[in-house]
Amino acid sequence: MSLPHAILTALLEKPSSGLELTRRFDRSIGYFWSATHQQIYRELGRLEAEGHIRALPAEQPARGQRKSYEVLPAGRAELARWTAAPQDPRPHRDPLLLRLRASAVVGTAGLREDLLRHLDLHRRQLAEYEEIRRRDFPPGRDAPEDRLRHLVLRAGIDLETFWTQWLDRALAEFDEMGEAQVTDGAGRADGAGDTSARAPEDSAS
Amino acid sequence: MSLPHAILTALLEKPSSGLELTRRFDRSIGYFWSATHQQIYRELGRLEAEGHIRALPAEQPARGQRKSYEVLPAGRAELARWTAAPQDPRPHRDPLLLRLRASAVVGTAGLREDLLRHLDLHRRQLAEYEEIRRRDFPPGRDAPEDRLRHLVLRAGIDLETFWTQWLDRALAEFDEMGEAQVTDGAGRADGAGDTSARAPEDSAS
DNA sequence: TAGACCATGTAACATGTTACATGATTTG
DNA sequence: CAAATCATGTAACATGTTACATGGTCTA
Questions:
Q1: Which Pfam families match (chains A, B) (predicted)?
Q2: Cβ atoms of B31 and A98 closer than 8 Å
Q3: CB of B148 closer than 8 Å to CB of A103
Q4: Quick check: helix, strand or coil at residue B204?
């Protein structure tokens, strides 16, 4: 239920064509709500059908011609409604944590390299956010809109900081485990294995 | 591509029926890969069809009868393969950050209460994780599997810590903005509004 | 024996992903 | 004018969500 509202926000900030939106989703908005161009075109169609946006009049016809959209009053009202309505936090879904947990059962083979790769990616993302911060939020601006957007950016910075720190620690643990490491993996995929590998968390009642 | 692997991990830790899995997904595994019972039953069916798991023989017939599953060698091998294979981090999707950004354009009405509510929810989750940590990871255990699972738990703890801190700060900002607050919202949904509300991040290139 | 809950499922739909198609514009 | 790239889309599929259905077991 969020993609249309992400698009409405982006269009209110600046009327755009589908491709422009796609590019902006690769930069700013997409940092916390990503979308592919297929999703965006599909959603633009729906939003137009619902009367929330309209194509800017510029006598452009069919395929291959760019088409810009702007938000209509009904769209703005819908966005305001959605923003004000309470919403529960959505549950996390993180494959990397899942793989780590799986590795406690089937072995850590291959994982370390990918942790390193992720660490690098998160460091780059962090650097990118900090560059944006330097550029767009110099000390002393405090229009409410700037404060709100700065707050969002700080969430991104703090999240990436968390990941880099956590991955550092994870890698340190991997190194400490050293030889004692569970490198089993497919080695005994013959299934004669123990099923005693219960995870502690499940011990709860 | 992760749900089947989450289920394989859970079943390796302990063979279970669909409902038992559902409950465990509400507790431990589900903290970083949630799933409803419908998803779980659908996926159990597929995993069985693929020969990755099998129902434990216990002459239980049709509907309404519990059916336990265990992982077969092929399933364990598939899990090991998946765990070792590199995977890119998936992009974030966070409606709350989106709403905050939208509020820079359509007003902050209603948001503060929901931030408070989220703060409360994250504090509770944090307390729950710390309770699990006290119970299951007393100092001095260092079997590799425990270390790996502890690492995962710490990611949960650190993430919830991040959210509580960030929400604290966000609420402080809201209070500072005070009267100057953008409480507009539907107030001028007549659409005569400014479209000059460009977000700084978009100024790139 | 009626109602609550346990346990497994079906169906319909919404959202997200991947692969491909098509016309327009630019550039060598 | 051929090839690359821009811009908009279609189709098929995978995943996730919501609402409901069905039979079994327990308890007042």
A1: PadR (PF03551), Vir_act_alpha_C (PF10400)
A2: no
A3: yes
A4: coil
The token duo for A86 is 């309470």
Q: Dihedral through CA A33, CA A75, CA B183, CA A135, nearest 10?
A: 40
Closest residue of B to A203, CA-based? B136
Strand D proximal to B17 Cβ, under 7 A: no
Per-residue pLDDT of A111-164, as tens digits, reads: 999 999 999 999 999 999 999 999 999 988 678 888 999 999 999 999 999 999
At A77, which helix (H) or strand (E)?
Answer: helix A73-84
Record the pTM: 0.88
Parallel/antiparallel/unpaired status of strands A53-55 and B68-71 = unpaired
User: Using an 8 Å Cβ cutoff, are A2 and A33 in contact?
Assistant: yes
Residue appearing with tokens 């991997």: A174
The pair phi, psi for residue B53, each rounded to 5°, is: -140, 165
CA of A157 to C1' of D14 (A): 32
Going through B80-169 in order, the beta strands assigned E by DSSP cover none
pLDDT in tens, A166-182: 999 999 999 888 655 55
Residue B18 tokens read as 């669909």
Angle at B149 between CA B10 and CA B79, to 5 degrees: 40
Which residues, 6 or more positions from B62, have their beta carbon under 8 angstroms from its beta carbon?
none
Length of chain B in terms of residues written: 205
Chain A nearest CA to B64, separation (Å): 24
CA distances from B51 to A25, A124, A137, B3, B45 (A): 41, 41, 55, 16, 10
**Does residue A65 approach strand D to less than 7 Å at its CB?**
yes
Query: Residues A29-76: pLDDT tens digits?
Result: 999 999 999 999 999 999 999 999 999 866 554 455 678 999 999 999
CA A74 – CA A49 distance, rounded (Å): 12
The angle at the Cα of A27, spanning B87 to B164, to the nearest 5 degrees, equals 75
**What is the distance between the alpha carbons of residues A125 and A120, in angstroms, rounded to a whole number?**
9
Query: What span, in angstroms and rounded, lies between the C-alpha atoms of B54 and A78?
Result: 49
Output DSSP code: residue B178: G
Report H helices in A90-143: 95-106, 111-136
Alpha carbons B70 and B12: distance in angstroms, whole number: 7
Distance of residue B66 Cα from the nearest chain A Cα, in angstroms: 20
